[in-house]
Write a structure and sequence with these properties.
It comes from Actinomadura coerulea. By secondary structure, this protein is of the alpha+beta class. The protein has one domain (about 5-190): Beta Barrel (Porin). It has helices at about 45-55, 150-155, 175-190, and strands at about 10-15, 25-30, 35-40, 65-70, 75-80, 85-90, 95-105, 110-115, 120-125, 130-135, 140-145, 160-165. A twelve-stranded antiparallel beta barrel has the order 1-2-3-4-5-6-7-8-9-10-11-12. It contains three helices and twelve strands, in the order E-E-E-H-E-E-E-E-E-E-E-E-H-E-H.
Length: about 200
């Protein structure tokens, strides 16, 4: 695990920006100290602007974000190919930490380590605001909660806020994957800003 994310309670926030803004995240500790910043790894050009104008299903598009320390040192890449089936967490050198694979869209995801061994699951509630991360034996590892900010904020900005509570001790790489759950679920389920 990166020492940057050693706190048992973390917050993952998207800055309040207009609907055309690209995905950006801040990871903070419980005291509000910024631990990491995530930004898109490349510019998709005019097609991305058009998808911003007509959101709907933009969460099906391929995209990746690079997490860095506030000083710019790379930590992880969250890489989501097109669709919602698969998302990888990579180290800056390209080595895979693990992956999230969709078992039931919007309801259940399985977590694998770099060798493809099942290490956990993510159970999602119906409103897609609570995410229970469990180990391979079904024991609770973390709870990720999305805060509802109101309809106007939901529809007109990129602002989403998540709290990640880790039930330490959690072995690696599952702990890192639990921390990444907020960003992965946001990219897979909430970036399109649908009312559902």
């Amino acid at each position: 695990m990166s020492e940057v994310f050693s706190s048992p309670v973390l917050r993952v926030e998207q800055p309040r920006r207009g609907p055309l803004a690209k995905s950006r995240y801040k990871v903070l500790d419980d005291g509000g100290t910024v631990l990491a910043i995530a930004a898109p790894t490349d510019d998709k050009g005019n097609a991305a602007v058009m998808r911003g104008l007509f959101p709907g299903k933009s969460n099906l598009d391929a995209r990746a974000v690079l997490l860095t320390t506030p000083d710019g040192d790379p930590l992880y890449v969250v890489d989501k190919p097109s669709g919602r089936e698969y998302t990888e967490i990579l180290r800056p050198d390209g080595e895979r930490v693990g992956s999230f694979v969709t078992e039931r869209v919007g309801r259940r995801y399985v977590i694998y380590d770099d060798d493809g061994t099942l290490i956990g699951t993510v159970e999602v509630d119906v409103p897609r605001n609570n995410f229970e991360v469990k180990d391979a034996d079904g024991g609770k590892v973390a709870h990720v909660r999305k805060k509802w900010a109101g309809l106007a904020t939901h529809l007109l900005t990129t602002a989403d806020r998540y709290t990640v509570e880790i039930s330490d001790p959690v072995r690696e790489p599952l702990r890192t994957m639990a921390v990444m759950t907020a960003i992965v679920m946001d990219m897979n389920l909430h970036e399109a800003k649908e009312i559902t």
